[in-house]
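Fill-in record for SCO1 protein.
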Amino acid sequence: MPDVGHLVRRPASPPMLPFSRLARPCRAQWSSLRSASRATKQATPKYPQKQLRFYSTEPPAPPRSASVFTPSSAVVFVTVLVGLVFYFRHEKAKHIEQREKERAASQYGRPKVGGPFKLMSHTGQPFTDQNLLGKWSLVYFGFTNCPDICPAELDKITAVVEAAEKKHGKIFQPVFISVDPARDTLSQMAVYLKDFHPSIVGLVGTYAETRAICKAYRVYFSTPPDADPKGDYLVDHSIFVYLMDPNGQFVEAFGQVTTSADVVGKIEEFVGEWEKNHDV
């Protein structure tokens, strides 16, 4: 027989419970936790969610004002500006014209304009103040390289002569005197005058002769005595059409702002008065 005296008796192990019985307490605990969570949610008060607002620390930008420079306002502005420019030019020309008339007046109140002269016509013939006697003369000073003013004034003289001759006949002698002797040759003058009234006589002289007749008619011109005949320059000069009677006496000066109709009206008055006083 084996010796079993030394073996120790161990207490009996408790009996094993089935798994279903072990899982019951876990299920009960999970159910209690879910019930507690539901109760907590029901007990927690619900507040409406508010929209968060953010504020900037920078100052607010100034409001944009509507632009006043629209296309239509720009057109109006340009139109008004152009009108003002023409208005002030017209008023300035009138002022200069009146000042020149006052300056040309003598101490007895009668303008001292005109006098003896000797020049060459565009046909190559000598022409003096004696050639103007017996007719009403329209005398204008300019130059053939003038871009705009001289052609406009010669067009005005053409219209005046055509209108006046319809009533009084060929009693008028228009004259165009050059203030640019360096460039205005006889041939140049002849070609230039083809665009205007055929009775206009172009007169050209030396610088000394030009200066003398300009002084006699109180005409200002800026051409220097040593001007280059091939130079590209403009000439400043007085802008007047001088009306001389058949005796060579000054009658009236018509400025740039005077229209051809106004000139014709004045000529009608002067010719009528002349004919009445001279039994013509």
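KEY FINDING: The CA atoms of residues 192 and 224 lie 22 Å apart.
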